[in-house]
Amino acid sequence: MRVRVISGLTIVVIMLILFFFAPPPVLPVVLSFVAALASVEMLKAVGIKHNPRVFVYSATASAIYPLLAYFQLSIFYYCVVVGVLIILLFGESIYNNSAFKFTEFCYACFAGTFAPLALTSLVRLHIRDDRLITLMMPVVISVLNDSFSLTSGVLFGKHKLAPVVSPKKTIEGSIGGTLCTFIVVFAVAMSLNAFSSIEINLFHLTIVLLVCNLVSQFGDLSFSMIKRQFSIKDFSNLIPGHGGVLDRLDSLIFAAPAFELLLNFMNVVVV
After folding, report:
1. Mean pLDDT, residues 122-129 taken together
2. Residue 71: alpha-carbon gap to chain centroid
3. CA–CA distance, 252 with 15 (Å, rounded to integer)
4. What percent of the chain clears pLDDT 90, i.e. is strictly above it?
5. CB neighbour list of residue 205: distance below 8 Å, 6 or more residues apart
6. CA 217 from chain center: how many Å?
7. What count of other Cβ atoms lies within 10 Å of the Cβ of residue 143?
8. How many Cβ atoms are within 10 Å of 265's Cβ, its own excluded?
9. Which of 193, 58, 201, 73 is nearest to 127 (CA)?
């Protein structure tokens, strides 16, 4: 537990530096590295360990996406990167068919696209005019939901939420995590409305909290499903006491794109 707490606090400090003090280009560069690590973890998790070229293809594509987001390039360039990745993986399957089956091809495509592309939402949120609030919001919602769900589950959990995929998660933990997240975020929002020039639309915030809490928990369960199917406890041991990059970002990978999508239809923050 001590190692887990120290690692968690270290991550929080790093995130605060990236969000509030580091020059704007630093975050996309860091996320490029994180995206590459995430793709490597996924490849190892699904059992692709014998082909270094596949790791290079997937990690390189993953590292490019956040940079495309930072320079605000069109979707055409994302399609080019994904297309090149698919061509290279097809080439690998043709060249080395006996060792790189089509199922592994699909795993590699997933590793080099899904999580890394989802993380680009954080870059786009970071370059908005109201970036400090909008970037923090999906991160805070994911962290609070994870923490309060765990605590509520330990204290009140009786009914399993998804017993096959994640036996320790409970319905009471899920509800408690959502309610506690609502209370904390609303308290902060009302304080900002009362004592700062920032105005939070509480109706829109309610919708955002509801959606992001749901998709955050869905993301957690989705990556737990992957681990369960491939009989692994964590995606790696990179972060002491926490597992790997994907173990820490599973809920955020779903929450950040959902939050970005919602911002296209509603104005949560008025500075």
Report:
1. 88
2. 21
3. 13
4. 59
5. 185, 186, 189, 268
6. 11
7. 21
8. 8
9. 73
Q: How far is CA 38 from CA 81, 246, 265, in A?
A: 17, 6, 30
pLDDT at 205: 92
Structural element, H or E, at residue 263: helix 245-263
DSSP string, 208-249: HHHHHHHHHHHHHHHHHHHHHHTT-S-S-SSBTTTB-HHHHH
243 Rama sector, left if φ>0, alpha if ψ -120 to 50, beta otherwise: left
Closest CA to 208 of 128, 265, 150: 265
Per residue, the 3-state secondary structure of 36-104, as one string, reads HHHHHHHHHHCCCCCCHHHHHHHHHHHHHHHHHHHCCCCHHHHHHHHHHHHHHHHHHHHHCCCCCCHHH
Q: What pLDDT does 28 receive? A: 95
* Cβ neighbours of 93 (radius 10 Å): 17
Q: Find the distance separating the first CA and the last CA of the chain, reported in whole Å.
A: 40
Contact between residue 93 and residue 102 where contact means Cβ atoms under 8 Å apart: yes
What 8-state DSSP symbol labels residue 201? -
pTM above 0.70, yes or no: yes
